[in-house]
Amino acid sequence: MGYTRTNAKDIISAGFDPKKTFIFSDYEFMGGAFYRNISRFSKRVTFNVAKAVFGFDGSSNIGKIHFPSIQGATSFATSFPHIFGEDEKKTAKIPCLIPCAIDQDPYFRLTRDCAVSLKYAKPSLVHMRFLDALQGPGSKMSASDDTSAIFMKDTAKEIKNKVNKYAFSGGRETVEEHREKGGNPDVDVAYQYLQFFLEDDEELAKIRAEYSSGKLLTGELKAICIAKLQEYVGAFQDRRAKVTDEIVKDFMAIRPLEWQGNPKVPRADLVVPVVKADEAAADGSAEGGEKMTKNQLKKLLKEQQIAAKKAEKAKQKEETK
């Protein structure tokens, strides 16, 4: 449980709202509705399927073989009655969105297959791209190799030294050649990191263009990257220092959550008014007096959300001038 609570502190430090967040340990949360779904899941996966999906063989222990059912059960709203309610007929329809790295994909592809059999909503995935190791494309970060990555515990000085010394460069061998031919941002680690940590897309596009043309040198690009990393890691460390064991306990307490929607995203029931059948028949909610289909409503909602984001971005730019 030591690693669990340490990891929980890191997660909390990313800025999660305790009113909307439930962090749990399989050891402590196991039982009840959660274990019921684990049992249902495990009944639907044969050993042959597990071998085909995960590459298990005769030397694989039963813990490895059984774990996908635990991982998969977390995707179902019915596993969390304290959040979504006790009525499985209703909660079974609630979908789950899972941001994860590509290495987790097999677990949730299998989960989607099981969801059909269980008559649950299929989970959807957002695949996260791995952050490159400092040594560049093809290399991997390692906790045992301090030079392979920027760690969240690194000081501002350590971040600067690591980026300057170890970050793979897409620049040319000489300044003259770089000015003439430009650098390659697609392999340059400093630029790759900026894709994650620089929020301004226009500024990122400008940096890419200047680096590719040779106007921006490798050292200058690294300096921009260093400043952004120092800012991000420093802010994280400040938040991390304030996370106490009591705060972790609050996040891991079994309790109802308070979800009033995201204030930055228009609510569907406000953007797309709910029209009753008799009103739709009388007035019409689409061209030609016909009721709008679900796809039309979704398209309209998406257009409204895009417009709202553009308006918010324009407002922020105006305020900074």
Note down, in words, how this protein is organized.
By secondary structure, the protein is mainly α. It has three domains: 31-128, HUPs (Rossmann fold, 3-Layer(aba) Sandwich); 130-258, Tyrosyl-Transfer RNA Synthetase; 268-320. It has helices spanning 2-13, 26-29, 32-43, 47-54, 62-73, 81-84, 88-91, 105-118, 156-166, 175-181, 189-197, 201-213, 218-241, 245-252, 268-271, 277-283, 294-320, and strands spanning 97-101, 124-128. A two-stranded parallel sheet has the order 1-2. Strand 1, helix 8 (105-118) and strand 2 form a beta-alpha-beta unit. Helix 1 crosses helix 13, helix 3 crosses helix 5 and helix 5 packs across helix 8 (105-118). Mean pLDDT is 88; it is low at 269-289. This is Tryptophan--tRNA ligase, cytoplasmic.
Summarize the structure.
The chain is mainly alpha-helical and 321 residues long.
